[in-house]
User: What shape does this take?
Amino acid sequence: QLNVPVSLKLRYVDTKLGSGSNGSVEGMGVAEDRLFNTKQRLDAFAGRSVVSSVEYADVNGSNRSSVLAMGGDVNTPLQTTVVRFKGPAAQKSFLIGHKAETINDNTFVAYEVVRS
Assistant: This one.
């Protein structure tokens, strides 16, 4: 859909991994809930429900074992997701860069670069 306003909800989670100043994974702090947000974005921009499921994928630098070893838990977001669409299609998305900065106790700004 082009030139059509969309409405969607986004969610962010406290990773309990602290907040680093350099944007590195060991200072993850608040992170995007990629499972929820990916489905919200894709369905909203399509104008209908197109996503069947979204799962985290274990990859070299971001896998469940390393996140648990750093003090995260089973709900801590990983950097790579796999989307399965309704129909014969799937998409893998890799987070390849990110940075965050805390402005004050209630405000942060962040960006992420994702490759699909």
Remarks:
- The two ends are 19 Å apart (CA to CA).
- The beta strands are 12-19, 28-32, 51-56, 80-85, 90-104, 107-115.
- The longest helix spans residues 34-46.
